[in-house]
Amino acid sequence: MDEDHFMEDEEEEEEEFDSSDKPSLPYNALPRSTRMNVQRSNVCSRAYFVVVMVFFHVYIINVIALLLYVHYNNGPGDLGGGDVAVSDPGNGLPQPAPSTAELQVEEQGQSFSLPRIEGIRVGHVQWVTLVPGRTVEMKTLSLKPLLFEIPGFLSEEECRVVVQLAQLKGLMDSHTTTPGQGQESHHPLLSLSSEEVFSLLDLNQDGLLQKHEIVSHSRSQDGTWLSPDNLRQILTGLEACSTGMLTLGDFRQVYDVSQLPGQQHSVKLHSDFKKRSKHTWLYQGQESHHVLQALRNRVISLTRLPSALVELSEPLQVIRYEHGDFSDAHYDSSPSRSETPCSHTRLAGNTSALTEVSCRYLTVLFYLSSVDDGGETTFPVADNRTYEEQALVQDGVDLTDTQQTCDKGNLRMKPTAGTALLWYNHLSDGRGWMGELDEYSLHGDCPLRRGVKWVANSWVNVDPDHQQQARYQRLVAQRQQATSGIEDHYQSLSHSDLHQDL
Ligand SMILES: O=C(O)CCC(=O)C(=O)O
Ligand SMILES: [Fe+2]
């Protein structure tokens, strides 16, 4: 396993100027005094000065460009420093949580910014006070993705309570896609012919496919019916038809193309994704167990995000792994695409959208039990110099297949009860909001070899479209005023699909 972490090297070129230029006339042809004049005028000539100044300016511009690059890749909080959650050892306590006034301004959509913790460098340790009188260490594990380890985030007692609450609630099989084990596939239609799919979509059986038929049949919570890429391909084909309808022949052309490998984003990651575990969801709102509320408040303190964002995010997902359980490498969030709305804000936007995706700015993973053998969380490409999806599968070695290649990942974390990992699934957009999916945030879970592993995912949902996020928060606030309790809003607005099992 390559555990090396490396920073980007900046190559600097030294410019050398040859000050020993010779006059073009033969040396011996000139009297001594003339020779001296020629040499001095070469060194101090206007042209020489201009060249030096040009190189000097280019150098300065390079330095400024480098600083801007670093600034925008780490988010605007990095240079300003005022928004970061933590302080270096000896620098005192972290900044207080954002005030209510700041949050209201954000909710009105006038000022949006997402604080981002600075990583500084791999191994860098910062201190963070999560509750008064309890300061814990936060260590940078990688810069790509921006990943931190916080030992002692939960006490032993808190781990026990969360596990017991999950058991009390009851756990269900996680959505898995192991072909041949009778489990649901992410592409249940792959075994159907294009004629069969056409017929299924053709609601009125008139032999023609209209847009509303594709849309109404294909909408799904998790994209398992038709993948977003399939849909895009089919709709693009439809739009290219002057009649606005697809015959079976037209459909065959677009559908068959959409099934080809390479036509789908991350085809490997989608089609072969495997996972085995059990999970449940624990609501963390006002009426919930005080430990769950405390953990949510701690996530607010740790991330420095506006509390409204964290409070309107998904419930806590608790997962139990038994012997042999695992999860292939995956992303917790989705690529930011304007045509695919986020699940958490869907009611505040265009509900005729085809599919919806999870938009999770960051993940805070709690280890609720320690594990001796297996069960590590792996980040196979953490701090790689480059990310190339094709390179994940090379020479028969598939880095996303954690059952086979867990030991080949760049970074593996052994579960220790009470430790939390925090990583950003998205980059900054350079303007203080959430940007593109960070491809280096790919991670998985190695097969468990001994004991039982318990973890919990605390995901913070953010819409890459900050106006959509603002609309959603305004809508929640309005409903909150109109009804008596916040629980109703959660049930009606926020992750109702996830709450159904609560
Ligand atoms: O259990 C782990 O170590 C990772 C879990 C995970 O990545 C997930 O549930 O999304
Ligand atoms: Fe994950």
From TrEMBL:
Residues 1-30 are annotated as: Disordered. Residues 1-18 have a biased composition (Acidic residues). It comes from the Eukaryota. InterPro entries: EF-hand-dom_pair (IPR011992), EF_Hand_1_Ca_BS (IPR018247), Oxoglu/Fe-dep_dioxygenase_dom (IPR005123), P4HA-like (IPR045054), Pro_4_hyd_alph (IPR006620), Pro_4_hyd_alph_FE2OG_OXY (IPR044862). Keywords: Calcium, Dioxygenase, Iron, Membrane, Metal-binding, Oxidoreductase, Transmembrane, Transmembrane helix, Vitamin C. One of its GO terms (cellular component) is endoplasmic reticulum. The keyword Protein biosynthesis does not apply. Pfam families: 2OG-FeII_Oxy_3. The chain crosses the membrane at residues 47-70. Residues 312-462 form the Fe2OG dioxygenase domain. Its cofactor is L-ascorbate. One of its GO terms (molecular function) is procollagen-proline 4-dioxygenase activity. The keyword Zinc does not apply. This is (Atlantic silverside) hypothetical protein. It comes from Menidia menidia. The lineage of its organism: Eukaryota, Metazoa, Chordata, Craniata, Vertebrata.
